[in-house]
Design goal:
- The complex is a heterodimer.
- Chain A is an alpha+beta fold.
- Chain A has helices at about 5-10, 15-25, 30-50, 60-70, 170-185, 190-200, 210-220, 225-240, 245-255; strands at about 55, 75-80, 90-95, 105-110, 130-135.
- Chain A has a single domain (about 30-255), classed as Tetratricopeptide repeat domain (Serine Threonine Protein Phosphatase 5, Tetratricopeptide repeat, Alpha Horseshoe).
- In chain A, the strands form 2 sheets. In chain A, strands 1-2-3 form a 3-stranded antiparallel beta sheet.
- In chain A, helix 5 (about 170-185) runs antiparallel to helix 6 (about 190-200), helix 5 (about 170-185) runs parallel beside helix 7 (about 210-220) and helix 7 (about 210-220) packs antiparallel against helix 8 (about 225-240).
- Chain B starts with about 30 loop residues before the first helix and ends with a helix.
- Chain B is mainly α.
- Chain B folds into 2 domains: about 1-105, Rna Polymerase Sigma Factor, Chain: A; about 105-205, Arc Repressor Mutant, subunit A (Orthogonal Bundle).
- The chains are: A alpha+beta, B mainly alpha.
- Chains A and B meet through helix 2, helix 3, strand 1, helix 4 and strand 2 of A and helix 1, helix 2, helix 3, helix 6 and helix 7 of B.
Chain lengths: ~260, ~200
């Protein structure tokens, strides 16, 4: 079967060529793409997706309003939600701020969806998760646990309400947590804990303290210090019982990875 | 297969982003895969959403939704099938978005703008953004099964065998749909040109 020419190459209509050329040149603004890439670097796919987990996502029905409400702020939230029956709980979320905007965190709450069996290669995916997303005042502050470390000095106030200086500390935060994530992944929890301790010292009011606390709990589990992980998790949940990370934190200490 | 830099639709998946092959490999393969897929296919997903009726203002959020679904299903998606999965997910997300939009009140002005707008002149279409708007308007009025093939072939520059594979069609069917899609595209253009002539005649009288 001969390959048909592309209309852009073969058409004798100037208008057709102009339209198709413009269509091919269409590209989104790059900021969100960069933020998505950064999010995968920080938390990793497993934390985003989780095991038997339904990912959170921003619902189209809500996003227009939420983004409009944020005005010029541009936010991205990736979330993982435990797919328990009924409404899932968001367990992993990272708010990524586009450059040069004040720091306000976003939480995504989702409904859980059933995960269809595999054999996805050529099959259509399920209808996307019907979810609602709403910008929340703030993601709760990170855990104030003090396991193996001096007491956490953070005030416990919700992060994000006070503008946080953006550049370059936000990138540094991301990079630091990325290193911690990588250390956990290669089973070097002691190094991860050291990096996270450095994070706590360097960014006492960091925008990603909840994420750092979660990584710390995971690192403690990987280090085999289950009691310390339990204490850290308890402190985390006690500091903010409504944290969207609650289910994830519980799963970390209830079913620690070997 | 295409002039665009898509990951292979079949074959061994290389988790390294094309632009950073010298980077040390990431410890978690799934994270590397997700990252690579976002880097390579984000633009494709965004365009797919736009050509399936998602407004510009909400396309980024819809793209995020697509990649969240992808992340959730990452371990189930066969290596090399990423583009197919993303495309199918994006069309589902776009469908939801269109339903949401339909539930909103639509102004009469919008209807008239969409249906009766004369085709801009070539001079106007030199403005790429404007040309893209017109293209979206035209493509959105095409039949769904023809639009899909048209966009994948003419805009995304995929080959017909790949398109057929992605859509679960025989190659001959994909070819036939492309032919019909082109006829429909030209027909819509023709109607809009006629509307333009009518508009000009009305302006003179």
């Amino acid at each position: 079967m001969s390959r048909p020419h592309r209309l852009l190459d073969a058409s004798d209509s100037e208008i057709e060529r102009l339209l198709l050329r413009a269509g091919r040149a269409g590209a989104p603004p790059g900021a969100q793409k960069r933020a998505l890439v950064a999010a995968t670097a920080v938390l990793g796919a497993s934390m985003i997706a989780g095991t038997g987990v339904a990912a959170g996502n921003a619902a189209l029905s809500a996003k227009v309003g939420s983004f409009a409400a944020l005005g010029s702020l541009k936010w991205l939230a990736l979330a993982g939600a435990v797919g328990a029956a009924g409404v899932g709980t968001v367990v992993g979320a990272v708010a990524i701020q586009h450059a040069a905007t004040p720091m306000v965190s976003t939480t995504v709450r989702t409904s859980a969806t059933s995960v269809r069996p595999a054999s996805i290669a050529r099959s259509a995916p399920p209808p996307p998760t019907q979810a609602t997303a709403r910008p929340v005042e703030a993601v709760p502050a990170s855990a104030t646990s003090s396991v193996q470390t001096p007491p956490h000095t953070a005030s416990g106030s919700p992060i994000g309400l006070a503008p946080v200086p953006t550049t370059p500390s936000f990138s540094d935060e991301l990079a630091t947590l990325d290193r911690a994530r990588a250390a956990i992944d290669v089973r070097e929890p002691a190094r991860a804990l050291s990096i996270l301790e450095g994070y706590r010292s360097r960014f006492p009011n960091g925008a990603m303290r909840p994420e750092a606390a979660m990584l710390r709990i995971e690192a403690l589990e990987k280090a085999g210090d289950h009691p310390a992980a339990i204490r850290a998790a308890d402190a985390f949940l006690e500091s903010d019982p409504a944290t969207p990370y609650a289910a994830r934190v519980r799963s970390l200490v209830e079913s620690p990875n070997p | 297969m295409t002039s665009r830099d898509y990951a292979p639709v079949s074959g061994v998946f290389d988790p390294r982003p094309a632009a950073s092959v010298d980077d040390p490999p990431r410890a978690e393969p799934s994270a590397a895969r997700l990252r690579c897929v976002v880097e390579r296919h984000y633009d494709f997903v965004w365009r797919t959403l736009r050509f399936h009726g998602v407004p510009d203002a909400t396309a980024e959020d819809a793209a995020q939704q697509v990649f969240c679904v992808f992340a959730r299903r990452l371990d189930e998606i066969a290596l090399g099938a990423e583009l197919s999965f993303l495309f199918a997910t994006a069309t589902h997300v776009a469908s939801d978005a269109r339903r949401t939009l339909r539930r909103r009140p639509v102004t009469i002005e919008t209807d008239i703008d969409t249906l009766e707008a004369p085709l801009p002149s070539p001079e106007d279409l030199v403005d790429e953004r404007r040309a893209r708007e017109v293209l979206h308007e035209i493509v959105e009025t095409m039949q769904e099964n023809l639009r899909v093939v048209f966009v994948l072939y003419e805009i995304e520059e995929l080959t017909l065998p790949v398109i057929a594979s992605m859509l679960g069609l025989r190659e001959g069917t994909a070819t036939s749909r492309l032919r019909r899609a082109r006829l429909e595209f030209k027909s819509i253009l023709k109607r809009r040109k006629a509307a333009e002539s009518h508009s000009l005649r009305g302006a003179r009288t």
